[in-house]
Amino acid sequence: MSEGWTPQSLTEAVNRGEIYPLYFLYGDETYLIDDALANLESVILGDGLRDFNLNSFYGSEADPAQVRDAVETLPMMAQVRVVIIKEAHELGEKDWEALSPLLDNPVPTTALICVGQKIDKRKKYIKRFIDAGCVVEFKRPYDNQIPDWVKSIAKKHGLQLSGGAVELMQQLVGSNLSDIDAEMKKIAQYLSISPKASDKQKVSEDDVMKVVSHVKLDSVFELTDAIGTRDRARALTCLANLLDNGQNEVGILALVSRHVRILKLVNEGVREGLSGQRLSARAGVSPYFLKSYVGQARTWNDRKIEDTFQALLDTDRALKSSSVAPHIWLENFIVQTCS
Question: 211, 232, 261: which is the final residue of a domain?
């Protein structure tokens, strides 16, 4: 039943009132998953007797017997109740075996919603979710999709960002929608804006610069500068700073890849005689940071950029296929690139 489901088709089905007994929401974009989960809860439960018709469990500590009891409990003065298992990827094979009766014969008066980071579609229990309900992957948006997401999240918080402010937000925060949402909340609080305001508060580049954290951007600038000058020790220190500030290894690789792509575009633009706003537009960066990129690009010739891209590609493959700790591969990338 759920083959081919997307986040958009899930939203459309829920808003039409089409409710299934089984859901499995997974992926690396937690903001989209949380948004879909909130929408499911809102549509199914409405405003009445929510506390009596909602149970939440965590996969790492869930007792399958308690989950079954919750799912098999009839809703109170409602048509459907909701049972959520967060971090469902933490459930073991024995847990799923104990829950199998709920999957073989789903309870029509309960929506069992599992949320996890990843799934294996070869597993019997996932096939049961596919047969009887909805299995939906929530992927992190591509870089070229982020500006539209920035505008959408800003609107939710009662804000309207200028074009330059949108670019700056992406540059400072990156492509993680949860991070963008958190920074947008800070801007709304700084400007004392209510999300329910009828008129959206205009946000300038200066507003963004005053509020949004620069930790990741500064660390990435330092990391690429250290790589460009082959300063291995400083590059490893910058890597450690990024990890300490909560950036995971895949995210760091994505940030560095984007940074190197920008350096490549800046070099090409400079060779074509571009500068100022035209060069900024060509590279896809805010004018606030153009000077820094131009300065770095002078030390990154075409050969250095291509070699770094190849090292990034090799590291990406290793991160996805190797059992070795991810940070080891990033350290290896730095050692190789700074040699």
Answer: 211
| Torsion over CA: 142, 219, 173, 263 (sign) | negative
In terms of pTM, does the model score above 0.85? no
**Spatial distance between the Cα atoms of 263 and 283, rounded to a whole number of angstroms:** 8
Residue in 106, 53, 114 with CA at minimum distance from that of residue 79:
53
Residue 282: which residues within 8 A CB-CB, separation 6 or more? 265, 266, 268, 269, 274
Q: Is residue 1 part of a domain?
A: no
| Pair (120, 72) in one structural domain | yes
Q: What CATH number did the domain enclosing 247 receive?
A: 1.20.272.10
Write out pLDDT tens, residues 156-188: 999 999 888 888 888 788 788 988 999 999 999
C-alpha separations of 210 from 117, 157, 168, 206, 207 in Å: 34, 18, 12, 6, 5
pLDDT at 194 over 70: no
Tokens linked to 138: 């929530």
- CA 204/CA 94 separation, integer angstroms: 54
Range of the domain at 285: 215-337
Q: What digits encode the pLDDT tens for the residues 215-224?
A: 777 788 888 8
Q: How far is CA 241 from CA 250, 287, 330, in A?
A: 15, 26, 13
Nearest to 118 by CA among 24, 39, 5: 24
Question: Do residues 184 and 68 share a domain?
Answer: no
Within this chain, do residues 168 and 127 fall inside the same structural domain, yes or no? no
Say how many domains are in the chain: 3
Edge-to-edge strand ranges of the sheet holding 110-116: 54-58, 81-86, 110-116, 22-27, 134-138
Q: Is 302 among the domain residues?
A: yes
Two tokens, residue 37: 């989960």
* 2 within a domain of the structure (yes/no): no
